[in-house]
Design brief:
By secondary structure, the chain is of the alpha/beta class. The chain has one domain: P-loop containing nucleotide triphosphate hydrolases (Rossmann fold). The chain is built from ten helices and eight strands. Its EC number is 3.6.5.5.
């Protein structure tokens, strides 16, 4: 089964999952997922949001993401979002989606920086997305603030582990360029759960914020702390850009210009940036040239679909 097979399979899985929930049954299936891990404020939500091409994720300084967000992207002719906790309500204004994520986060964690491992489930239907499941996670942190428990470091770690230990989870290990990569929480966790680096991609954010005279060329050329699948550099919107409501199209154009004009990255420009990261993820998930991860995911999905169809078709025993 090649590229198309997997793309056809995921909508089928979604429909079967919906059919099961409609009859009150929980179809437990580990769909392929892409999760972001990294330290607090590394730029994880910013990276994910760019994949959707809409402003809808809470981003900012301090601890922002405080519950896992399981974001299922569904390729469809119209664009809207739907939360599992208010099924049937269609959100067409993405500003409202962001407000709902914030309200639903506060509902479980309170408003004073608390955290919770209970995920928020959101589906985004759009003609501009591929069928992917993304998971936005709280950033790793060490010192408790506000209502955070004394063992915040370990609670967040446990939360991440629930996702990234799964073999079908592709890990985006996000590290900011303006702090030393040797201290990267993202790389530490990724190495632990995926020592061979089969399903880890390094993402370097904040390249625009490096001190003058320094650059991340060695990292991006995969020479400093090599990863099997290497690193992709991105430039997300700064806090000033967010406050000034810079839109995603302008941000992507600025990112492209940054790589093309930077003397240390110009030679790598075609392998850097958000669109390239998206392309790589799509290839990894759907192509048959990544032995291991994609083969395992495809065969697991096919087997699950077959067993579900069997369960639906088999006559129920008389009561
Ligand atoms: N200049 C610049 N700022 C960035 C970049 N990436 C993220 N930021 C800023 O960094 C801050 C944190 O970004 P988020 O995307 O919320 O980071 P996060 O990792 O999701 O944060 P938590 O959910 O709190 O762990 C925001 O103010 C962003 O504007 C980047 O590449 N360049
Ligand atoms: Mg976040």
């Amino acid at each position: 089964m090649g590229n198309r097979g997997m793309e056809d399979l995921i909508p089928l899985v979604n429909r079967l999952q919906d059919a099961f929930s409609a009859i009150g049954q929980n179809a437990d299936l580990d769909l392929p997922q892409i999760a972001v891990v990294g330290g607090q404020s590394a730029g994880k939500s910013s990276v994910l949001e760019n994949f959707v091409g809409r402003d809808f994720l809470p981003r900012g300084s301090g601890i922002v993401t405080r519950r896992p967000l399981v974001l299922q992207l569904v390729n469809a002719t119209t664009e809207y979002a739907e939360f599992l906790h208010c099924k049937g309500k269609k959100f067409t204004d993405f500003e409202e989606v962001r407000l709902e994520i914030e309200a639903e986060t506060d509902r479980v964690t309170g408003t004073n920086k608390g955290i919770s491992p209970v995920p928020i489930n959101l589906r985004v239907y759009s003609p501009h997305v591929l069928n992917l499941t993304l998971v936005d996670l709280p950033g790793m942190t060490k010192v408790p603030v506000g209502d955070q428990p004394p063992d915040i470091e370990f609670q967040i770690r446990d939360m991440l582990m629930q996702f990234v230990t799964k073999e079908n989870c592709l890990i985006l290990a996000v590290s900011p360029a303006n702090s030393d990569l040797a201290n990267s929480d993202a790389l530490k966790v990724a190495k632990e759960v995926d020592p061979q680096g089969q399903r880890t991609i390094g993402v370097i954010t904040k390249l625009d914020l490096m001190d003058e005279g320094t650059d991340a060329r060695d990292v991006l050329e995969n020479k400093l702390l090599p990863l099997r699948r290497g690193y992709i550099g991105v430039v997300n919107r700064s806090q000033k850009d967010i406050d000034g409501k810079k839109d995603i199209t302008a941000a992507l154009a600025a990112e492209r210009k940054f790589f093309l004009s930077h003397p240390s990255y110009r030679h790598l420009a075609d392998r850097m940036g958000t669109p390239y990261l998206q392309k790589v993820l799509n290839q990894m998930e759907f192509c048959s040239c990544c032995p291991g991860w994609s083969t395992m995911v495809r065969s697991r999905l096919t087997a699950t679909c077959a067993s579900w169809i069997q369960a639906i078709l088999l006559p129920r025993p008389p009561k």
